[in-house]
Design brief:
The chain has 312 residues and is an alpha/beta fold. Helix content is 34%, strand content 21%. The strands form three sheets. A four-stranded parallel beta sheet has the order 2-1-3-4, sandwiched between helices.
């Protein structure tokens, strides 16, 4: 019997519906259940053929568990080794090499020194930075956000130089990105599952959280094809099996705003019934496909085109 597990935190609607849907399909030799961990012994299999990871970004113990599981042949969705290495500033840098439009972005050192460091730890860093060049490049208003991590935590809109320094002073040891504001005409959040199945969802990030999917943007066929191409290029190059890509349309051009979301929101209350049904069904089908094509004891992770090119 092949087992599909899902590793999750406080969310309930998606994990429970996913398990139920996989089991409803009654595929011979496949069952789904919540991941259960009662011990973690080095080098020992997890007992799961496929694991969907929804929480390891917040729980280092789970990330270590998933790496050990992958080492023993589990197909982990998403690849825990790449997820550990990836971050948003690098993603933006990578997009400049793929001809995917992204906002102008610079990386800003943390306001507070990291623990266990001193002034001497920063001998290679000019102080002050070339702030005039940075601010001229980005312009105001702008957005400041952590260079790694997801969600809307510690995201600031900054309106000028004084506002930037005031808000940067609140960010402590976080390394931040300063990013050009894209004043958009339309905005879309796009699920990509299995590197092939796309769900383009009108999205309004300026609305309260529970109303962000209550947007009435209506992309034409040409725009859908354009966005689909961008989403597939991004996810295949990064190697994410389960991701969302956010695209802001300015003057007809889709800008990739946020596209490193390997545990994207899939809660029924926020995404709505139609989107929820799609992601449950598509994730269930993909997990079953991964279980059926699993190679025992082999590396069953997805490695993106960037990593494959790097080792050739």
């Amino acid at each position: 019997m092949k087992k599909i597990g899902i590793l999750f935190g406080k969310e309930r609607s998606f994990p429970e519906a996913f398990i139920e849907r996989v089991n409803q399909k009654k595929v011979e030799g496949i069952i789904a259940e919540p991941v259960i961990i009662d011990k973690l012994m080095q080098g020992e299999p997890s007992g799961y053929d496929v694991i969907i990871d929804r929480i390891s970004q917040d729980v280092p113990f789970y990330r270590a568990y998933l790496k050990n599981a992958a080492l023993n042949g589990t197909a982990v969705i998403n690849n825990p080794f790449w997820w550990s290495a990836d971050e948003k500033f690098f993603n933006n840098c990578l997009m400049t090499k793929l001809d995917v439009p992204v906002p102008k972005t610079v990386l800003i050192p943390s306001s507070a020194r990291p623990a266990e460091t001193s002034d001497q730890s920063f001998s290679n860093l000019t102080y002050p930075l070339d702030w005039d060049r940075i601010f001229d490049y980005i312009g105001f208003p702008a957005y400041m956000k952590p260079h790694a991590g997801g969600g809307w935590k510690s995201v600031y809109k900054v309106t000028g130089v004084d506002d930037f320094f005031t808000k940067h002073g609140e960010t402590g040891e976080l390394v931040m990105m300063l990013q050009e504001e894209i004043i958009f005409d339309e905005y879309y959040r796009c699920y990509c599952i299995g590197g092939k199945d796309i769900r383009i969802m009108p999205y309004e990030p300026r609305n309260p959280h529970h109303l962000r999917y209550a947007a009435d943007f209506k992309p034409d066929h040409e725009k859908i094809n354009q966005m689909t191409d961008i989403v597939l290029r991004i996810c295949k190059f990064l190697g994410y099996d389960f991701n969302t890509v956010e695209l802001a349309i300015r003057n007809g051009v889709p800008y990739a705003i946020d596209f490193c979301n390997p545990a994207p929101d899939a809660d029924l209350a926020s995404v709505g019934q139609e989107n929820f049904d799609w992601v449950v069904e598509t994730a269930a089908n993909f997990a079953i496909e991964k279980a059926q094509t699993l190679k025992e004891g082999a590396d069953n992770l997805t490695w993106g085109a960037f990593m494959k090119k790097s080792v050739c």
